[in-house]
Design brief:
It is a single chain. By secondary structure, the chain is mainly alpha-helical. It has one domain. Helices cover about 90% and strands about 0% of the residues. Helix 1 packs antiparallel against helix 2. The radius of gyration is 19 Å and the shape is rod-shaped.
Length: about 70
């Protein structure tokens, strides 16, 4: 299941992409640059969330294996 960072990051990435394209279409280089920054930040946040989720899943598997060994 996705965590908050993954969801927020994806939203920020999409919002940034939209700003980027709108800026491109209307010729607003500042808006385009802001969108690019937001898109990159969102991608980083989404990746961080994915890494946290995977680390948590690995930890849970290790804990489950330890419990089975003790039983």
């Amino acid at each position: 299941m996705r965590n908050k960072d993954e969801i927020k990051g994806k939203g920020k990435r999409i919002k940034g992409r939209i700003k980027e394209k709108v800026g491109e279409v209307i010729g607003d280089r500042k808006l385009e640059a802001q969108g690019e920054v937001e898109r990159i930040e969102g991608a980083a946040q989404e990746s961080l969330g994915r890494a946290r989720r995977k680390a948590h899943e690995i930890l849970e598997r290790v804990e489950d294996e330890e419990k089975r060994k003790q039983a």
